[in-house]
Amino acid sequence: MKVAEVIANARRIQAAVPAFNIPYLPMMTPIVHALRDENCVGLIAVARLEWIKFEARSIAAIAAEYRRTADPKFTHLHLDHVPVIDEDNLRVDYVADIRTALQEGFESVMVDGSRLPLADNIYATRTIAELAHKHGAAVEGELGAVMGHEAGPLPPYDELFASGKGFTDPDEASRFVRESGVDWLSVAVGSVHGAISAAARTQKKVEARLNIEVLEKLRTATNVPLVLHGGTGIRKEYVLQSVRHGIAKINIGTATRQPYERFVGESIVKAQDAVYDAAVHVIKNDLEISGLALRIENERRN
Predict the structure, then answer these.
(1) Top-tier CATH class for 3-301
(2) Residue ranges per domain, the chain?
(3) Are 176 and 140 contacting, i.e. CB atoms less than 8 angstroms apart?
(4) Contact 227/184 with Cβ under 8 angstroms?
(5) Residue 98: which of 157, 140, 68 has the closest Cα?
(6) Contacts of 11 (CB under 8 A, 6+ apart)
């Protein structure tokens, strides 16, 4: 089953497919094992910053590790955030990175033009959609500002949430989906990314909430599967509500990265065991999606 069909079927049954980010290559094996053991389909995801600022090494290295460890029944390879303008406000050769990933067999790709004006974001995303669809790959875009990767401390979270700063606008989202040709849309409704600076990587994430009213407006306005970035640390009741209001893919990073970093100094094996335990906890307890692979397969047959 192609990944676009997986996500579409998840949306129909009101479930969310997890996308586990891999900033360190040895994390991939335990996450694949966790998905398989929980009979859960999921995405193995890597973002540009994870080979620039962490140790995912390169697009080719990620693809090679995936070919070595993947279980096609339960896993799909996804290229996460490739920004047009990155977190350091530098222009990125995003087309070249995404073209390389498609040539390496990535099944879905994300172009992040969220730091651009709306028309420019649409143009950049449409460029990637046309390229990726020729390869049979799905495309994710982003509209709105999911905070957390910027330099310096965030403003107080309650202040951010109350102001709605950066939240995705439903009218803009409708236009964006219609004109860009994306398959999925990453939206900003209150979640935050895990910090990537060396000083903040080990800190506990803020306990985020989600504006479900805005999310429901986005679901109605776009009629495509919606994506929640910064999935770690959101109160569980909000996560489960979000799935009933259009979220069909949830990105998980901090929940598995921090256990790896905590134990890798002792041994790779201990760090991998910690990643496995964390991934199982996310699947079984946080998202309640053990057995998701079977549920999606049954939906496909129906």
Answers:
(1) alpha beta
(2) 3-301
(3) no
(4) yes
(5) 140
(6) 225, 246, 248
For the entire predicted model, the pTM comes to 0.91
Residue linked to tokens 């407006």? 217
Q: What is the pLDDT along the chain (302 residues), one digit of tens a residue?
A: 999 999 999 999 999 999 999 999 999 999 999 999 999 999 999 999 999 999 999 999 999 999 999 999 999 999 999 999 998 889 999 999 999 999 999 999 999 999 999 999 999 999 999 999 999 999 999 998 776 555 555 666 666 666 567 789 999 999 999 999 999 999 999 877 655 444 445 556 566 779 999 999 999 999 999 999 887 878 899 999 999 999 999 999 999 999 999 999 999 999 999 999 999 999 999 999 999 999 999 998 88
Burial class (CB in 10 A: 0-12, 13-18, 19+), 243: buried
Write out the H or E segment, with its range, that includes residue 164. none
Calculated CA dihedral for residues 129, 133, 135, 139, nearest 10 degrees: 50
- Provide the Cα torsion 126, 127, 130, 135; round to 10°: -130
